[in-house]
Design a protein that fits this description.
This protein is an alpha/beta fold and 221 residues long.
Amino acid sequence: MIALQNVNKVYQTKSIETVALNRINLEVAGGEFLAIMGPSGCGKSTLLNIMGLLDEPTDGAVSINASDLKGYSDKQLARFRNKHIGFVFQSYHLINDLQVMDNVEIPLLYRRVSGKERRQLAAEALSRVGLRNRMEHFPTQLSGGQCQRVAIARAIVGQPSIILADEPTGNLDSVMGAEIMEILLQLNQENGTTIVMVTHDETMARQAHRIVRLFDGSQVM
């Protein structure tokens, strides 16, 4: 489903060169739930951004769904992301001026989907995360756990084959974190969705099929 071959990422300024990722070789199978762990600054989020086509490697190759994406234009990459990948972030990235329903519909605005179908799909996604009764609320009226549920609904509304989650439970208490983890596990087990999750929480990581650990930009196990 996802393959990285000899991926390097180097950030360079006039005075310093920072190696964020060093020769990463990683394959994620379809339907796998992979956890990525490591200390702060080790390259976890950089790796996730490259998997999600939000950033380009300095060297190496990235393929998703057996598609070699080298040479894709920004517009082509955006279209590919929208179809195949859903994102969940630690800080939710919801638009406070939009109601929950409108936030969830956002990925569908970039497809040829009618307004009626958008609302139907958004309602189904919100039902999946237990928030259908909050469709007309604004994010500021919700708890942190509810906001993360909205973010997951937005990630799955387009029925992507891959979900990339960057510290999805990082801002939540243990009870809410466990609820979010349960939703991700259900998506993986019932829908066969491939999930890659960055986390600092060993308890959460152990529920995944496999753990990849990074240290100073290198894969250590």
